[in-house]
Automatic annotation (TrEMBL), chain A:
PANTHER family: ABC TRANSPORTER I FAMILY MEMBER 17. Keywords: ATP-binding, Nucleotide-binding, Translocase, Transport. This is Phosphate ABC transporter, ATP-binding protein. It comes from the Bacteria. Residues 5-247 form the ABC transporter domain. Pfam families: ABC_tran. SMART domains: AAA (SM00382). InterPro entries: AAA+_ATPase (IPR003593), ABC_transporter-like_ATP-bd (IPR003439), ABC_transporter-like_CS (IPR017871), P-loop_NTPase (IPR027417), PstB-like (IPR005670). One of its GO terms (molecular function) is ATP binding. CDD domains: ABC_PstB_phosphate_transporter.
TrEMBL record, chain B:
The chain crosses the membrane at residues 23-43, 49-68, 80-101, 143-162, 174-198, 204-221, 253-274, 321-343. This is Phosphate transport system permease protein PstA. PANTHER family: PHOSPHATE TRANSPORT SYSTEM PERMEASE PROTEIN PSTA (PTHR42922). The keyword Magnesium does not apply. It is a multi-pass membrane protein. Belongs to the binding-protein-dependent transport system permease family. CysTW subfamily. PROSITE patterns: ABC_TM1. One of its GO terms (cellular component) is plasma membrane.
UniProtKB/TrEMBL annotation, chain C:
It comes from Streptomyces viridochromogenes (strain DSM 40736 / JCM 4977 / BCRC 1201 / Tue 494). The chain crosses the membrane at residues 43-66, 86-118, 130-154, 174-199, 299-318. The lineage of its organism: Bacteria, Bacillati, Actinomycetota, Actinomycetes, Kitasatosporales. Keywords: Cell membrane, Membrane, Phosphate transport, Transmembrane, Transmembrane helix, Transport. Part of the binding-protein-dependent transport system for phosphate; probably responsible for the translocation of the substrate across the membrane. One of its GO terms (cellular component) is plasma membrane. Belongs to the binding-protein-dependent transport system permease family. CysTW subfamily. This is Phosphate transport system permease protein. It comes from the Bacteria. One of its GO terms (molecular function) is phosphate transmembrane transporter activity. It is a multi-pass membrane protein. InterPro entries: MetI-like, MetI-like_sf, Phosphate_PstC, Phosphate_Transport_Permease.
Length: 258, 352, 333
């Protein structure tokens, strides 16, 4: 079900502040695309425009097009709620619903849509937890609250919750930045498996991580503080890290700034 | 990496759902109000409350039916909740608007300088004329004395809780301050009354002040506590590290930093007790005459005046009750506004 | 010894140096002691007042109840002037509970809805002003509510009461003989308006504290606004709403003047909420007080003691819920 994302001329605002300007790129299906860049360059904002989460923030609005296959997410008659169902998201800090059990957390998205059988639900939960490499750790305590898990497990629970509704695209906003190295490794392995089924976009601060998990890498930068962030270049990860075509990218990757 | 084009298998759009146009909620609202008024007129209902209720129910039902037909069940539910929430908001605004409107409209009838500067001395309830000078005087004295008692005790208790409070005593004080916040005003009045019965005393203004002080103390403690907690610990430590003793640190550093918030809290609590009627009714009793001495003899007070004018049941007395209400509300609102003004003016400047 | 060391230390920043030296010379200790004494004394004074309230009310109440020839809890009469005196709180307890329940049934859903309106539905620019208006509702003195209730609300309720009588009169609860709408339902409606702000304000605070990330979790799953509220906001805020409601209940139970002005009391338990009659603890004290003898006042104090205990229990429960919630959310943060 993975879909291609085609962004053209996208500009996003917070009120009157322009956060990102004129971004165009293509995200290939069944691949991992990483967004890197200095803090405040707008990579998270851009990520949130891909499932219309940006407009949830006060004053957030967007110009330009985001095509999911052939359909413009910002076209007239498009329901942002349906968009978010098709474009799942995993956040920086693991955010399982604190009052729900592990099972209910994973089932939450399905229950919203109402049409499921009870046995079906259990299957989907198991499949999703297996897909998130969490099944073996939690299968004996599915009815315990999700908040009782470790940080890394919680994050994988959130991934299970996101993939349970079978989205076309999975957005990850620095999914490992709140985790220890071992949990990070587990998530990175998981990303490698998930890309067989989903289009994955990941924002990361960690360049080694981008190099390890992604197929393509996009580098974002901003001219100065207060200026809008821009896409500098996007290319195969290997090329970005070995032989980028823009000097700024090389400077950033080699640690000369940022 | 991948040949993506082969994957774009065509299937029906899942992103596009039938959506009601943006103006739909407004149209439904207008339609249900019109229908509500229409039905009420046809059925010969006179009360505004009825047609408003009909309109509200029509609005909620209409929203659900229309949204469920055009969109889907989930959207319909979402829209129903939205309309319920709006209806609830209007439900709360209507009484307030009505209260303010009727107070102002009926209050201005007799409210003038004469009204503010004369007592009820020789005026019978059924006669026009008279005023609230004696009541204003009584309220100011009673509330002033209550503040003189409650403000220092409240602020000192808050200082104890924040700056010194550890252990069982502090925990007990915290708990009982909470409990005290919930004491009904009439119970505070009964407590002072039981003391007065003990010593066979006649009603007088200061007795009311004592009851009001009991009501005021916990409010002052709570708000002052909040303000003291906002003072950063670094500030205290910086002062203590200079060898300044703790009591001077509190007086010279902690209190000046939070004085704006503390003042606001005290003013808000004054606004609250100024409108208290029950304890004054029990302890001060009310009077038609000017009595400037709060320590002897019955006194009037503004809220009590309203109650007694209302109780007399005369149309002229109702006018005076509304005018006194307007005065009382104005007094309370001015206190509120000034208090909030101080809070804003003295608020620690943050970056935002 | 300690103070000596401080004095020996090199003086820090110049402006406070002189003051610091003076302070360090040992004059500090009495100052500290006096200040601590004063502030601790104030705290103790509060405890003493609470104890005194309970003590004196109980003392006067015992004086009255010991001479009561009725049953203080069950007698349906309040005749303190008779010989022997007969009085009981059954009618008052019933009226207080019924009017408060009506107030809660109306106020809690509306208050929660307004709190949601303020945090999730209202246009952002309107949120501040509306919250301010709600605060103003809280600042209006109860006697003004009473006056408005008696002279504006009561005449306007006739239509509604007629309706209830027509369609629900068969239940008995909503039967109405006509006449001024000065009944328990009116009192309940007025109390609901009065406790709305406190429930709204506390609920709004709780809803505002719902972490953004929980709401985003629901949003990212494709939840509608209502579903976000149901999945993230309400579960998080539930205990807060409960304690807010109990604070409101405490208010409603003890409200005096609004009830005294609106209700047309008698000393009977009525099945119908629409017919005038009944009474509440606080209203009864306010209405009977001016004509009561010393003994009659003691009897009123006895009923006040019951009210005191009830409000203590309700408020204590509300505070306990808030305190437990703090621990709970702290553990999950």
């Amino acid at each position: 079900m993975a879909k291609r994302i085609d962004v053209s001329g996208l500009t996003a605002y917070y009120g009157s502040h322009k956060a990102i300007e004129d971004i165009s790129m293509t995200v290939e299906p069944r691949s991992v695309t990483a967004f890197i860049g200095p803090s405040g360059c707008g990579k998270s904002t851009f990520l949130r425009t891909l499932n219309r989460m940006h407009e949830v923030t006060s004053g957030g609005r967007v110009e330009g097009k985001v095509l999911l296959d052939d359909e413009d997410l910002y076209g007239t008659g498009i329901d942002p709620v349906s968009v978010r169902r098709e474009v799942g998201m995993v956040f920086q800090r693991p955010n399982p619903f604190p009052t729900m059990s592990i099972f209910d957390n994973v089932a939450a998205g399905l229950r919203l849509n109402g049409s499921y059988k009870k046995s079906e639900l259990a299957d989907v939960v198991e499949r999703s937890l297996k897909g998130a490499n969490l099944w073996n750790e939690v299968k004996d305590r599915l009815n315990k609250p999700g908040s009782g898990l470790s940080g890394g497990q919680q994050q994988r629970l959130c991934i299970a919750r996101a993939i349970a509704v079978e989205p076309n695209v999975l957005l990850m906003d620095e999914p490992c930045s709140a985790l220890d190295p071992i949990s990070t490794l587990a998530i990175e392995d998981l990303i490698g498996e998930l890309k067989e089924r989903f289009t994955i976009v990941i924002v990361t601060h960690n360049m080694q991580q981008a190099a390890r998990v992604s197929d393509r890498t996009a580098f974002f930068n901003l001219a100065a503080v207060g200026q809008p962030g821009k896409l500098i270049e996007i290319d195969e990860t290997e090329r970005i890290f070995s032989n980028p075509s823009v000097q700024a990218t090389e400077d950033y990757i080699s640690g000369r700034f940022g | 990496m991948s040949t993506a084009s082969s994957l774009t298998a065509k299937h029906p759009s899942t992103l596009r759902g039938a959506r009601l146009p943006k103006w739909a909620p407004w149209a439904i609202a207008a339609g249900s109000v019109a229908l509500g008024v229409g039905i009420s007129a046809a059925a010969g209902l006179h009360s505004n409350i009825q047609w408003a209720l009909i309109a509200a129910i029509l609005h909620v039902l209409g929203t659900y039916v229309i949204a469920a037909r055009v969109e889907n069940r989930r959207q319909a539910k979402d829209r129903v909740v939205t309309s319920l929430v709006w209806v609830a908001f209007l439900l709360a605004v209507v009484p307030l608007a009505s209260l303010v409107w009727s107070t102002v409209q009926r209050g201005v009838k007799v409210l003038d300088v004469y009204f503010l500067s004369h007592s009820m001395g020789v005026i019978a309830d059924s006669e026009p004329g008279g005023g609230i000078y004696h009541a204003i005087l009584g309220t100011l004295e009673q509330v002033g004395l209550a503040t003189l008692i409650a403000a220092p005790v409240g602020v000192l208790t808050a200082i104890y809780l924040v700056e010194y409070g550890r252990g069982n005593l502090a925990r007990a004080v915290t708990f009982f301050v909470d409990v005290m916040t919930g004491i009904p005003s009439i119970v505070a009045g009964l407590f002072i009354l039981s003391l007065m019965l003990m010593f066979d005393m006649e009603p007088f203004g200061f007795a009311g002040s004592l009851a009001l002080a009991i009501l005021m103390m916990p409010v002052v403690v709570r708000s002052t506590e909040e303000m003291l907690k906002l003072v950063p610990n670094e500030l205290r430590e910086a002062s203590l590290a200079l060898g300044v003793p703790k009591w001077r640190t509190i007086l010279k550093v902690v209190l000046p930093t939070s004085i704006g918030g503390i003042t606001t809290g005290i003013m808000l609590s004054i606004a609250r007790i100024a409108g208290e009627t029950a304890p004054v009714l029990l302890l001060v009793f009310g009077s038609k005459f000017i009595n400037a001495n709060p320590f002897e003899g019955a006194q009037a007070s503004l809220p009590l005046y309203i109650y007694q004018q209302y109780g007399s049941g005369e149309a002229t007395a109702y006018d005076r009750a509304w005018a006194a209400s307007l005065t009382l509300i104005a007094f309370v609102m001015i206190l509120n506004l000034v208090a909030r003004g101080i809070a804003r003016w003295k608020a620690p400047k943050t970056g935002r | 010894m300690d103070t000596q060391q401080i004095a020996d230390a090199p003086p820090p920043t110049p402006p406070s140096a002189a003051e610091q030296k003076r302070a360090a010379r040992g004059a500090t200790r009495p100052g500290d002691r006096i200040f601590l004494g004063l502030s601790r004394g104030s705290g103790i004074l509060l405890l003493v007042i609470m104890a005194a309230i309970a003590g004196f009310l109980t003392y006067r109440a015992v004086l009255a109840i010991s001479k009561d020839h009725g049953n203080f809890l069950t007698t349906l009469d309040w005749n303190t002037g008779a010989n022997p005196p007969v009085f009981g709180i059954a009618v008052l307890a019933y009226g207080t509970v019924v009017s408060s329940i009506i107030a809660m049934v109306i106020a809690v859903p509306v208050a929660v809805a307004i709190a949601l309106f303020l945090t999730h539905y209202a246009p952002r620019r309107l949120r501040g002003p509306i919250a301010y208006v709600i605060d103003l509702l809280a600042a209006v003195p109860s006697i003004v509510y009473g006056l408005w209730g008696a002279l504006v609300l009561v005449p306007n309720l006739n239509g509604l009461f007629g309706w209830l009588n027509d369609y629900l009169g068969w239940t008995g609860i909503f039967s109405w003989q006509g006449g001024a709408a000065r009944s328990m339902l009116t009192v309940g409606i007025l109390l609901a308006i009065m406790i709305l702000p406190i429930i709204t304000n506390v609920s709004r605070e709780v809803f505002r504290q719902v972490p953004q990330m929980h709401e985003e979790a629901a949003l990212a799953l494709g939840a509608t606004r209502w579903e976000v509220i149901r999945m993230s906001v309400l579960p998080f805020g539930r205990s807060g709403v409960i304690s807010a409601s109990m604070l409101g209940l405490g208010r409603a139970l003890g409200e005096t003047m609004a009830v005294a002005t609106v209700l047309s009391p008698d000393f009977l338990i009525h099945g119908s909420l629409l017919n005038p009659g009944g009474g509440t603890f606080a209203q009864n004290i306010a209405s009977k007080f001016s004509e009561a003898t010393e003994f009659g006042r003691d009897a009123l104090i006895a009923s006040g003691l019951v009210l005191f205990v009830i409000t203590l229990l309700v408020n204590g429960a509300a505070r306990a819920i808030i305190a437990r919630r703090k621990e709970y959310s702290g553990a999950n943060a």
